[in-house]
Design the sequence.
C-alpha cells in the first residue's frame, strides 16, 4: 500500500473531509486530492503536518511500519 492510500484511510478514520484536511494544511482541496490519489509526491512539510494531525509517525504514513 502506498502512502496515498494510508493518508486516505487516516482521514476517513478521523471522520474528516478532504476540504478539512486541506484547510488544516493551508492548501486547496484539489491539491490535497492529488496527494491522496498518488498523482503528486507528498512534500516533507506536508507529511510532518499530517503525522501531527493524526498523532502518528511519518513511518506509519509512509508504510514503513504497521505500528501507529
Sequence:
Amino acid at each position: 500500500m502506498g502512502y496515498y492510500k494510508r493518508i486516505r484511510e487516516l482521514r476517513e478514520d478521523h471522520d474528516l473531509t478532504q476540504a478539512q484536511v486541506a484547510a488544516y494544511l493551508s492548501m486547496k482541496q484539489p491539491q490535497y486530492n492529488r496527494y491522496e490519489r498518488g498523482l503528486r509526491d507528498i512534500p516533507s512539510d506536508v507529511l510532518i503536518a499530517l503525522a501531527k494531525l493524526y498523532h502518528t509517525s511519518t513511518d506509519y504514513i509512509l508504510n514503513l511500519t504497521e505500528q501507529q
